[in-house]
Amino acid sequence: MRVLVIFSHPVETSFQASMHQTVVQELRAAGHEVDDCDLYAEGFNPVMSREERIGYHEVPSNQLPVKRYIERLQWAEAVIFCFPTWCFGLPAMLKGFFDRVLMPGVAFDISDPANVKPSLTHIKHIGAVVTYGRPRWTALLMGDPPRKSITRYFRMLTGGTTRTQYLAYYHMNLATPERLAKFRAKVVKAMRALTV
What we know:
alpha/beta; two-stranded antiparallel sheet; 7 helices; 7 strands; 38% helix
């Protein structure tokens, strides 16, 4: 399967970075073709410019500023997101990717505004490996926006029936080597078992 891994963390020595490496290694070991997209390492600009916003609905010229990322998304049969939760949301880098890349003509067809249609229907699997600084109950109290962004919003853009797997490690502030190892094993198992 063709898998696009989208990683968003600025620190290469972080636990999230090691999980990203684990995801890529296990997917490749399982025989998948992997496009490893490290947003920070690639210097992705998450800021939508004034010109981009003005031309947001002008398909296909709206795609020119981020054409390379659109092509990679259109190539993928599966997308795996690896990111930390900050302030109970997506990191700004990843949110900027959503803002700039998931646009009309790419993620959805808005030619009939009364009947918007998903355009990422070629994606058959969505996954996420996510860390949280606080416990699960706190994320639930806040509505867990990152989980909803992946399992509801992004899934909706694929047609709403795509297989979705959200692997979350909660309470990094109290992490222990044993708990981290257990979570890593869970991620390894999930990546090895990835199917359409």
